[in-house]
Predict the structure.
Amino acid sequence: MKTPKKVMLTGNKAAAWGARMAGVEYVPAFPITPQTEIVETLAKWFADGTLQGKFTNMDSEHSMFMAAGSAGATGVRVFTASSSQGILHGLESLYTITGWRVPMVMVNVSRALATPITLEPDHNDVMSTRDCGLIQLHAETCQEVFDFILMGYRVAEEVCLPVLVNMDGFYLSFTREPVLIPDEQEVRNFLPLYTASQPMFQASRPMARASAVFGGATYTSFKLQQDLACRDAEKCFNRVAKDYEKHFGRFYGPVETFHLDDAEYVFVMSNSFATKGKSAVRKLRRQGIKAGLLKLRLFRPFPSVAIASALAGHAKVAVIDQNLSPGMGGITYPEIVTSLYAREDRPEKILSVIGGLGGKDMDDQDFMAIIEHLDSGDGGSPLYLYDEKDVSGFNRLQQIAKLKEA
Amino acid sequence: MKILTPVHKKIKDLHPHEAISPGTGLCAGCGGLEGLRLGLKELGDDFLICNAAGCFTLLSVYPFTPLKGSWLYTTMGGPVPAAQGVRDALDIRMRHRGLEKKEDLNVIVVAGDGSSNDIGFGATSAGIHRGLDFIYFCYDNEAYGNTGFQLSASSPYGSATQTTPSTDVHEAGTEMNKKDLFEIWKAQKPVYLATVSPREPIDLSNKFARAKDLKGPRMFICMSPCPTGWGFEPKEAQQIAKLAVDTGIFPVKEYFEGEVVHTVRPRKRLPVEKFLERQKRFRHLFEPHRQDEVIRLIQSRVDDYWRQYE
């Protein structure tokens, strides 16, 4: 194996490099902060001939995902990226193209949703795509972003479903980290140039695709096939992960454990904030508190067994959702609780925590507050990481708003 | 005025080949289906239709398709960007992946007036802006027909729809004017743009024959008499289509190389009433009392249009 080159890349640049090394042939694009750096980088590479194929400036995310899907159905390797409002604007197209069963990889750079409009991250945008049939991989580091894109194409092209790789806006998209970029031939050995495993549109092969159906039974047949394909993607991911390790020496399971073995307190986290969680775990351990962390990587298909096996036997678990379903709470919380329900050795306490909304930082005090809450007898759920300091800060802003009104 | 040599002079010249089999789920007497059937005869079988949600979505209901070519159902607002993706992918495969030229496809969008004027309009404008090499076929039945005939931006002044009914307060029914999609598209200078009528098959066929070999955005607006929505018997569809042309309500024209030419001119325009009185959607203009002012306004707008060219 040739020595990979090590370069300092932002999350966005790592995504662009992932697409480049995957040999993408088609990128329909529409700008949105904080994703734009990805498509700008790819636009330049297509324009100067580094990449062969076509970069098309689209008119919206709805259009962009339509073009991405139809190009996938016509036999080229497709990449695109979006974020936040763009994901919502394109959501109809995302449901449509997952139903088309076309392979591709897209990156979502998470950003909180309006209203109020803001730029910093949380996961309500990616959670809105939870049920549309996308395979979802959530990245903590720039290296994971790069690696998941290469792995994503293998999975997408085997099970015929689009893969979404998620990263946090700002915290990861604009943070430089060292990224190992393998030699192109090594990448080709892992991910050959694209040959479609399903029929593609061309003159010699007329076909009707995505025809209307009448009757719930026919509809159900198609949806169940999609469900089976998506479930099968977990096994596929695990195979691909082993192969990836063989080629590049890095292994990615559907979940990652951190100081979990003897942990009495477990934080369940995903994406870049998991780095903050790991740091908190180290500090708590130095104080003699047996903390650990479970990081979610593969979010769809949901690796219920892997998650339940990791969490079973631990006393206290806090599921930290950087998203909010108003009137319900964290979105991943009930999924994790469901996974554990049938286990006799399930944790005695599973707390839902809502934090990091709109990019609100999480510090050591927050993690300590979670530990205290887990220990208190009557601690309600969910726990909102929103304290007196935040309240007084907001009160100050309200005072200014009222002054303007008067 | 440019004189373009017609490929076809009489009905017998038209291709006997059919790209759409009979027996589709569409309504009897659908004018748009006749228009598409004639158009596809010219284009040949190597096509892919990107379809927008609408009446024509019922052309392909699993496991059937009446088409010799390919079909992709998209979304109501996204047939043009879907066409973009197909076009781009075919170009990439031909340029870089050794796909033979004979595997190329005519990429066609088939959408109703609701998709064309309303929900898919922005994406269509963007497709023209990008110079997308495709053919757009809009079957214009002047309302959201598949959902039971509600107002679209194509619904004409004085027509009644389910969401603009004629009442004592709003006697005319629809009080807005039909959006002039031809002029809007023309402003973006597509390579070719034409209105066609199923009642003018030779004109229609010649226009498709002309558009076939051009490259870039090519648009057709097909007057689509709609028995269920407009309220007439299916067997009357051709007569209604003819009256739309003969009264001058529906100008049959083309835009090519910067010029607009009326390719079928009514010799002596019939009064608009002849067209209106045959349809239930205009019945309130005649019963229970005659709405002279509304009819006069419809007539004067038709007269104003033709005064520019006569």
In short: The first strand of chain B starts at residue 47 and ends at 51.
